[in-house]
Design brief:
This protein is of the alpha/beta class. It contains 8 helices and 6 strands, in the order βααααααβββααββ. The radius of gyration is 20 Å and the shape is globular.
């Protein structure tokens, strides 16, 4: 038996589209990009990413409510709903958050732990309300899926947290971050994702957004960029 007959050779194919995070991997760490996107090595989401998912879900749902009902109490209720929904759809994610919170690792008891988990994440929602007044906003789109072609056979994709369009037509693309804002001098790297979405919006509509805005709920800061 020769060696060739005992070795399985796996070929990797470059993806036909990239999200902002994957494009960032490609720029900063080609090996990480290959492992994640070409070799598709399984990778569990971090507790921080899972908390971010819960906050994003609550903020998305907030704008389903009438403007006068958009308050911290309503957002907290939506956060609890998102936690219970995660228990149904993603028990592994709930398990990771329970372990991170040093609670018993039992996703079946997610409802019992809801109050504790909400209390850990609620400060991020309170910070959001200190940065924006959602009663004054009427988003054009939320969690908007984008998938546009850049060149033949290659495109960019992702989800825009929120698109606001002013009465005069100016477009603002908004992204929520549950972490902290970058240190001085690193803002350009942080805006990479937003420029990515601005390109997608321009490809879809022919309009260049007037403003790109990052809300950092972990440090109570706003980062803005005008293309």
């Amino acid at each position: 038996m020769d060696l060739a007959s005992t070795v399985s050779i796996v070929t990797s194919t470059f993806p036909s589209s990239l999200s902002p995070s994957r494009a960032n991997d490609f720029q900063n760490c080609p090996l990480k990009f290959r492992l994640r996107n070409m070799d598709r090595i399984p990778e569990e989401p971090s507790a921080a990413a899972l908390r971010g998912n819960l906050v994003h879900s609550a903020l998305e749902g907030l704008f389903d409510l009438p403007a006068h009902e958009r308050n911290v109490r309503a957002a907290t209720a939506l956060l609890e709903q998102a936690w219970l929904a995660m228990a149904e759809s993603n028990p592994a994610g709930v398990s990771a958050l329970l372990v991170d919170a040093q609670l018993p690792n039992d996703p079946a008891q997610a409802e019992s732990f809801a109050a504790h988990m909400v209390s850990r994440i609620e400060p991020l929602l309170e910070t959001y309300f200190s940065l924006e007044d959602p009663t004054r906003l009427n988003p054009h789109a939320r969690e908007m899926a984008v998938n546009v072609s850049i060149t033949e056979g290659f495109g960019i994709r992702g989800f825009i947290d929120r698109v606001d369009i002013a009465p005069a037509g100016q477009v603002r693309i908004v992204d929520y971050k549950t972490g902290k804002a970058p240190r001085a001098g690193f803002e350009s790297s942080a805006m990479f994702q937003m420029r990515f979405y601005a390109l997608a919006w321009w490809r879809m509509t022919g309009d260049i957004p007037a403003m790109l805005q990052l809300l950092y709920l972990g440090s109570k800061e706003v980062l803005r960029y005008e293309p």
